[in-house]
Amino acid sequence: MSWAKEFVELDKKAHDRSSFDSGEDELNDFIKTKAAKHMAAGISRTMVLPAASPLPDGKYPICSFYSISPSQIERQTLPAALAKKLPFYPVPVFLIAQLAVHTEIKGQGLGKITLIKALEHLWNVNAHMKAYAVVVDCLNQAAQDFYTKFGFEILCDNNGRTRMFMPLGTVGQLFEEE
Ligand SMILES: CC(C)(COP(=O)(O)OP(=O)(O)OC[C@H]1O[C@@H](n2cnc3c(N)ncnc32)[C@H](O)[C@@H]1OP(=O)(O)O)[C@@H](O)C(=O)NCCC(=O)NCCS
């Protein structure tokens, strides 16, 4: 399966959600049954990278996706050196709520591309409405290893998941022109 050039907002009519398989039931269930509802409810946005070619019914398989939303963290969960610069009320952050690649095309660099696109998207949002950091709740150790590789640091436990973060200042270094 080769992928299209651009990430686009999930569209139930254009994208075949049923064939998506990340190998993780929770993520599969999210894209199949929740992502569109959450967008309609105005609580998160899901962007998908469709396959380059459609299925016989005209819909495009989903190669990878990410979902983002605003969120907040408690100041005291941050390392002391960072926390001391912040006020004593909850700190605004952006959450990468979901991110997954189809199992058929894992290991070909698409996880990296999808994460960079999600960070670029959030960096652009940050130009209009600031947040302190990007956070992600890791589904398992493999996800934690993946985000560690790209510079995310452990923040705290969040309902049994390891929550990791990257300050927006660090994200900006990836996209700001010299
Ligand atoms: C984690 C996931 C997104 C990685 O996607 P992928 O397309 O296989 O990853 P890539 O091919 O882009 O790999 C990018 C880099 O991350 C590394 N990597 C990939 N999976 C990794 C893992 N589980 N642990 C450590 N490193 C990993 C690769 O070795 C690669 O390193 P390199 O650039 O030095 O070669 C994908 O396996 C997935 O969808 N997993 C199930 C859902 C999931 O756990 N999502 C995480 C959010 S909770």
Secondary structure blueprint with pairings:
Layout: E1 8-9, E2 15-16, H1 25-41, E3 45-50, E4 60-73, H2 80-83, E5 91-101, H3 110-126, E6 133-138, H4 141-149, E7 153-158, E8 161-167, H5 168-175
In a nutshell, what does this entry contain?
The protein has 178 residues and is an alpha+beta fold. The protein has helices spanning 25-41, 80-83, 110-126, 141-149, 168-175, and strands spanning 8-9, 15-16, 45-50, 60-73, 91-101, 133-138, 153-158, 161-167.
Structural description of this entry:
The model has no long low-confidence stretch (mean pLDDT 96). The protein has helices at 25-41, 80-83, 110-126, 141-149, 168-175; strands spanning 8-9, 15-16, 45-50, 60-73, 91-101, 133-138, 153-158, 161-167. The N and C termini lie far apart (36 Å). The chain contains five helices and eight strands. α3 packs across α5. Strands 1, 2, 3, 4, 5, 6, 7 and 8 form an eight-stranded mixed β-sheet that branches. The protein is of the alpha+beta class. It has one domain (8-175): Aminopeptidase (3-Layer(aba) Sandwich), CATH 3.40.630. 32% of the residues are buried. 31% of the residues lie in helices and 30% in strands. The chain is elongated, with a radius of gyration of 17 Å. Bound molecules: coenzyme A. Coenzyme A binds next to β5, α3 and α4.
